């Protein structure tokens, strides 16, 4: 709606700016750094760097496709319960998604070592994008996320494609009550 009707891109999509009500309706908040698109491109450096798309981190012109990258990254984080860059190793994923036991110790869920900000930004630009682990999430959800997290913005799915994606259509048809 904001993109089509008002030519606005959010520029700071991240988990803390995504709200879900008890009916499962999703709202985006905090439009403090949103901006109006001029000729479908933007070039200001605002937003939370760790959720920025590779093209934004490289300082090139960007479009609403950068919000799609941020959405994909946010979905992975919300799905696995931790920031996904660098990706968690098999031991960490097993601790998150495996069966719980009384012998699990807190050091099994520490995740990857923290990265310095420049190291993190370099990783986002130069390393493969995060992926959801196999065997845990539906193929439709994994495909949706993969379409969001293409390094090249031209390869990323556009909003219309994503809104018609099987995962979205299934979610729209389900009754949700998380109250």
UniProtKB/TrEMBL annotation:
- Reactions the enzyme catalyzes: L-seryl-[protein] + ATP = O-phospho-L-seryl-[protein] + ADP + H(+); L-threonyl-[protein] + ATP = O-phospho-L-threonyl-[protein] + ADP + H(+); L-tyrosyl-[protein] + ATP = O-phospho-L-tyrosyl-[protein] + ADP + H(+)
Q: Which SMART domains match?
A: S_TKc
The family database entries (InterPro entries) matched by this protein are listed as:
Kinase-like_dom_sf (IPR011009), MAP_kinase_kinase (IPR050915), Prot_kinase_dom (IPR000719), Ser/Thr_kinase_AS (IPR008271)
- Residues in domain Protein kinase? 1-168
**Which Pfam families does the protein's record reference?**
Pkinase (PF00069)
What superkingdom does the record give? Eukaryota
- What molecular functions are annotated in GO for this chain? ATP binding; MAP kinase kinase activity; protein serine/threonine kinase activity; protein tyrosine kinase activity
User: What PROSITE patterns does its record include?
Assistant: PROTEIN_KINASE_DOM, PROTEIN_KINASE_ST
What's the protein called, per UniProt? Dual specificity mitogen-activated protein kinase kinase dSOR1
């Amino acid at each position: 709606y904001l993109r089509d009707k008002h030519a606005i891109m959010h520029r700071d999509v991240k988990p803390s700016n995504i709200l879900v009500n008890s009916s499962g309706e999703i709202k985006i908040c905090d439009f403090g750094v949103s901006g109006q698109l001029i000729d479908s491109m933007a070039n200001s450096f605002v937003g939370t760097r760790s959720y920025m798309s590779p093209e934004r981190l490289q300082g090139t012109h960007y479009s609403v496709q950068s919000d799609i990258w941020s959405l994909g990254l946010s979905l992975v984080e919300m799905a696995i319960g931790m920031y996904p860059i660098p990706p968690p190793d098999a031991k960490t994923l097993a601790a998150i998604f495996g069966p719980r036991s009384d012998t699990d110790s807190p050091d099994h869920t520490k995740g990857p070592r923290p990265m310095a900000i420049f190291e993190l930004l370099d990783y986002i630009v130069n390393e493969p994008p995060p992926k959801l682990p196999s065997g845990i999430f539906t193929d439709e959800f994994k495909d949706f996320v993969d379409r969001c997290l293409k390094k090249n913005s031209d390869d990323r799915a556009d909003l219309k494609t994503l809104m018609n994606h099987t995962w979205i259509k299934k979610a729209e048809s389900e009754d949700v009550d998380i109250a």
